[in-house]
Write a structure and sequence with these properties.
The chain is mostly helical and 246 residues long. It contains twelve helices and no strands. The longest helix has 28 residues, at 147-174. It is elongated, with a radius of gyration of 28 Å. The N and C termini lie far apart (103 Å).
């Protein structure tokens, strides 16, 4: 008797789950899309992404699927899922290169990479990729409405890349590995010229050269600091150091 009851309960549970599954399958993609819009407006990005992913995977109209692809990427981005968002933006761009949203997708692809590395003490590969994407954007869409914002983000990328080199260089400098420190500081000032943080790079570069006895190179770095960053907090100390180099 107990066995029959257990079997009956299992059958009822299976039937109920099948019924719910059937109802979900029958939900029109247009309805799912609107549900996603409502959830997105409520900042329920993960739930919105689930709705839009279902639309994307359905056999819906091309225009609705296209609209869903970019919305799915946006939901993933705002949910902090930057790796998956980057993949969705890149995929949209590849599938629809002539779409009016293609410039936006390219920008957001770069921004999704940029967001993957917020700190200077972590791997900067995503930031380097973001910089490459932003450079590509400016070459392809120099007059786009968001070009100004892209230039600003590109400048932030370069500053972050320079800051990373300085961060590593400081470590080498503190541990008396001046040759390695010089390499990092030179990388910052030569590869990312003009970024605000390079005043420190030039100051530390001058100090590192003095430590290795290369007075001529030290003078060159410190002179450049005073000339290019006259208002820097390192400028006065650089002038004093220059006065002491014979």
């Amino acid at each position: 008797m107990f066995r029959r009851l257990a079997v009956a309960l299992c059958i009822m549970a299976l039937a109920a789950s099948c019924s719910l599954f059937s109802k979900e399958i029958k939900t029109p993609p247009e309805t799912l899309f609107k549900q996603g819009e409502k959830l997105y407006a409520e900042k329920k990005y993960e739930a919105a992404a689930e709705k839009w992913r279902a639309v994307k995977e359905s056999n819906t109209a091309k225009n609705l699927k296209m609209a869903t692809e970019i919305r799915l990427a946006d939901a993933l981005f705002h949910d902090g899922n930057y790796i998956e968002a980057a993949a969705e933006y890149e995929n949209f761009r590849k599938l629809h290169p002539k779409n009016p949203k293609a410039p936006y997708a390219l920008y957001m692809f770069g921004l999704s990479n940029y967001k993957q590395s917020e700190k200077i003490d972590t791997d900067q590969t995503p930031v380097s990729k973001a910089a490459t994407v932003f450079e590509s954007f400016l070459q392809e869409y120099p007059n786009a409405e968001m070009a100004k914002e892209v230039r600003e983000k590109l400048a932030e990328c370069r500053a972050k890349q320079a800051s990373h080199e300085i961060y590593v260089g400081r470590f080498y400098y503190r541990t008396d590995k001046y040759g390695a420190a010089i390499g990092r500081f030179r990388e910052a000032v030569e590869k990312y010229p003009g970024v605000p943080v390079n005043d420190e790079a030039l100051y530390l570069l001058g100090n590192a050269y003095l430590r290795t006895g290369e007075k001529g190179m030290a003078k060159e770095a410190l002179t450049r600091l005073v000339k290019e960053y006259p208002k820097s907090g390192f400028a006065d100390q650089a002038k004093k150091m220059l006065g002491g180099i014979s």
